[in-house]
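cron nightly-structures :: item 1 of 1
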Amino acid sequence: MTEPVRTRFPLWGTLAALAGFAALQALAAAGAGVFEYPLDDVYIHLAMAEGISRGTYGINPGEAASASSSILFPFLLLPFPGSDLQRLLPLFWNLLAVGGCGWVWGRIVFLAGVTGWAGAALVLFGPLCLNIPGVGFTGMEAAPHVLASLIVVLGLWRAMSGGGVASWFVAAAIAAPLLRYEGLALTLAAALALWSFGMRRAGLAIGLAAIGAVAAFSLFLLHLGLAPLPGSILAKSLALDPQGGAVQRAVLGVAINLSKPAGLLLALLLAGTALLAARVPGMRGGPAGTVLLAVWFSGLAHLIFGQIGWMNRYEPYILISLVSAMLLAGGGGEMTAGPRGPSPAPAALASLVVMLAAGAIYLPPLFGKYVWNPRAIHLQQAQMARFAQDYLKAPVAVNDLGRVAWRNPYYVLDLWGLGSAEARDIRFGPVKPAAGWADPLVKRHGVGVAMIYDRWFADAVGTDWVRVATLSTQDPKGVLFDWDVAIYATGADAVAPLRGKLAEFAPGLPEGATLVLEGGS
């Protein structure tokens, strides 16, 4: 492969990543009949941004809540609050992030010196197999975080190669933990690597800026009367073992991660890169080995403290970062500050194996199940939102917060606990909650209707609640935690009005969604 051809790797990577992203969007829109995101969580960020624009850091006006798992992402969604244009902002940012990931990935393969069919295969198939389009497809902050992580790896390698600490590297290192908390491990590892090789001013600046930004956000949450970590992170962590201790949850989390194919792949990749660093002459202590070691420790931290799975959006950033570090360390490239690593061929071969393994893990569920998730969200959460906002026009309790809360001027009580510290403290307190625990909450907030999964919240239903209807998805495709939503009146006096509004709402349901009233129509 000639050098002029190889210089096009960044362009090839960009086009490959965007082609996969476009294919997912087209298939999803064709299946759903409308544009929709595959996760209700996207609308949590949109609802948080809408709340911020009204002067409240939260979902409901005047009630602080940290429902977003990302510090920065809701602020990127601030323009055009509550409008159709705002709804497209997650798509816009993810489009840019996916294209950017493809470009940086292509640049890394080029700098690693990979040539021939191996280089072409990595550039053209790496983005899809390593799930860059799939992560962007979720509409969440994960794709921008992948981009920031790749830039950190590239920037660290450039600095260790004698190219200096670039401003874009510093910006990405600080932004990574603001996009997702997991980014703090990679940022601090990069800062420590810079410090250890004499670039102490830059390393200290990056480390202090990242820690300071995250700490400042925690102080902001405490000032609002909230926990120092976002409610979404706390709820997901506590859900592992609600009444257990932190150590129990950590051990359980590692076991769950290792039980998943992507978690096992991450563990094997960590073992392989450790073996590479230990056995290759000149790798230990040199700049190439230091880059690899920094990313390795970040991967280990994710395996222990992070999550694997749920639309495979949590761990791709560290898999891609590890493969990138392995390529750069193995290729040597322009590395001048120390002995060169191994020849490009072994690192390229190992990267191809990881790429194929990741593709076998990610692509079948992505194109077989997850591509149908927009249809599932449209037939369930979007219809719940339509009923709550256009017909009920009153406070409501739910276990899926986002779609119902966005553009809703009425109070939304989140029984899952992402947007309600009250519910989270009850569900995950030191003592298992008593039957009917949601009843005092709905009464306190004047909520007359609840739309919940009985599979999750049957024990939360109050004794005087009346199940009025069930919203069901026909011909289920995709992945939801339940295909039936139970609709309750939380008191006898709310039954008749709720029944009447549901009867008005039902004729407008799209094909594939049905509403069955208890006791017949």
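cron nightly-structures :: done
The chain has two domains: 3-371, 380-517.
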